[in-house]
Amino acid sequence: RKHRDPKKSSNTNRDNIYKEANTYVNNNPLAWVNTTIFDYKHQMLTGCLSLYTWTYADDIQSEEIFHPLGTIEPNPRKDGCAIVKLTFQCSSYENIQFPSMLAVLKYAEELHNGEVLSSDKLHENSKPISAMLSQYLRIDKVYEMHDQDRNALWSRRYEILAEAPEELSTLLHCVNWNERDEVAETWNLLQQWPTISVERSLELLDYAYPDPAVRSFAIRCLRFLRDEELLLYLLQLVQAMKHESYLDCDLVTFLLERALRNQRIGHYFFWHLRSEMQTLSMQTRFGLLLEGYLKGCKPHVPHLCKQLKVLDALKAGSLIAKKGSKEKGRKEMQDFLSSPSNSSIFQSIQNPLNPSFRCKGIQPEKCKVMDSKMRPLWIVLKNADQSCNDIYIIFKNGDDLRQDMLTLQMLRVMDQLWKNEGMDFRMNIYNCISMERRLGMIEVVLNAETIANIQKEKGMFSATSPFKKGSLFSWLKEYNRTEEEMNKAINEFTLSCAGYCVATYVLGVADRHSDNIMVKRNGQLFHIDFGHILGHFKEKFGVRRERVPFVLTHDFVYVISKGRNDRDSEEFLYFQNMCEKAFLVLRKHGCLILSLFSMMISTGLPELSSEKDLNYLKETLVLDYTEEKAREHFRSKFSEALVNSWKTSLNWASHNFSKNNKQ
After folding, report:
1. Residues 219 and 350 in one domain
2. 477 and 339 within one domain
3. Containing structural domain, residue 41
4. Residue 100 burial (CB < 10 Å; 0-12/13-18/19+)?
């Protein structure tokens, strides 16, 4: 049984909060439930409440006894769950109400007038405030802060306001949220606090900051976001709504307003909400949000209804394709999509992956069933714009695409961070959208081939082809015949390879075999299939298959060095320098990367279910190092990838051999 008070937050690391409780509690919990102590009208609950509980299989992947991040919604399956009866004793006061913002600010003013806090202001400490804050800047050390340091920083809060407003999150960890005077003073401070950067504002929407005034301040800062920036962080902002105690809050209002103002934002807002509608704990909250959006944006409703019909048709086609042999499934799926009743569904629809593109029909004869275990569909749609290529989509039924969607979004964030620093790594980040539980679409990148197929085409035997260093270079030369074209393709390859080397290293992207790395004919390299991230590397017979920080084979070096196997060439040294610069930029914005992943913990992804899963990011970003030490650290990882590239080739050869035996 757990109460969640939306008006209070804790300074203590939640791993320690329940340490004492766990000593006495049976280690086989039956169920859990959360509730707020004040209702949405800010009145304290009274009388007897019936709380419908969740089992630990319903909405939790953590081993903790309590589940503070769990929903405050009751279990809708009332006939099949345990009920906790909770009685709030009636007091002599009627209608105990949590004070409004105005009342709290008035109380804070009275404290100042009475000079109750004057001793804090006059507190003298010879140490500069920047030096005091430096040990807690951009690193996860605030949870280890001693009470003495907390009190010292709190006493100098006005200096932080004047000299280091970006470090608001550090100051908030110094507040004793059980002390009325300090909470009132904090709310008063937030009224005076200047707008802070987007990345530090996003941090305040994490579950670690439940105070409503803090979250309102974060939204005040985010109101300056341009639409394209908002789209970049929309995935996390939708998840952040799960941590709001009440639906009527600034975050919900902000997102609804922006979605109604821009139909492109509304499109992704709709699908992010709908993709979780099969999660029982989210049905009520996200259902109400969907209803609110659809009622407010009636012109968008017909377009979304058409997309839902397309989804149903593809789902039915996918089930047909899964029956019998692959060839039989393909024929029956094509016949199904060719029928007049089904083919008409695909006329005049927006592409769910990118609503900027419209489709005017489907081409069933070009559709096929792919080789993977879940038999995804290769779908070809006619582009309404006759001057553009047809639209190619992979429809997946049975695979959870949420992790792919998160990884691709983080790649976009990284790409934007680099571009803000004047570096374009020619990243080719395709679109991916989760539409229902284990159901979604992936954009097909045209004029591209996997490394495995390139090596197979250019090598005599596919099992040994990973060891042949010229296959990729020869393949690029086929499509870039002039010297100018080839130099441009090599430059595209060099930059994109640098970007993906650093990004996959920081994110801990695993399962990097030769079928999961592709190259476009223009030289752009890109990665696909992000089923394993944050260092969850595959093992075989207890041995880790991937033993390098990132993929940098001799075949790649050969292309970067313009057809020479020279690791001291000017071109390769340029590549290494770009990798180092890219890493240092990401490290500078490590706070943002950690915050965005932290906001996704409540999603329930198998490889991102608790704070422990963030440790990999902290290790790769080495935020507690100086810049020079971090550069040296990355150089050692770069050398490790280069020296051990033969292990990658061996792993790829094993993969090719295994794949050939299955065919």
Report:
1. no
2. no
3. 1-98
4. exposed
